[in-house]
Amino acid sequence: MKKTVEIRPATQEDIPEITALFRATIPHVTSKHFSEKQMNVWASGADDIEAWEKRIQKLYFIVAQIDTNMVGFGYLKNGNFIEGLYVQKDYKRQGIGSKLLRIMESQAMMNDYDVLKSDINKTAIPFFDNRYFEVIKKHKKNYKGVIFENYLVEKNL
Fold first, then answer.
1. Structural domains of the chain sorted by starting position, each given as residue range(s) with its CATH number in brackets
2. Does the predicted TM-score (pTM) go above 0.70?
């Protein structure tokens, strides 16, 4: 029997689980496209607790749960920019990312945005492509002195 995925707003109390999921997910979904150094630098973003506190406080930030286990999260910046979308590795390809994305799309539309955007890595292209996002621009991104190849994508709502 398939378990119910519940979506709810993130709280400050979720930060330990959010950062653990963030840190654990990166090497399992990106190892094909990233060096070990890139993965370590990216995962180190979990250590900036103050940044996570601000995201939860100021952004539209939601989490996905099955029973009491957090299985994913996503957040919107500036009302229509997907700043983060992560699903726990053991729950990939079960519709959780799609559910989080649909809710963020709805949130953007409720706030009168007609375009949803994100800045994604190569690993995420198939997911976003299958949900009608178009690659607008390929670019280099410097994060903590390490260069990443990213793609600006957008979708008309």
1. 5-113 (3.40.630.30)
2. yes
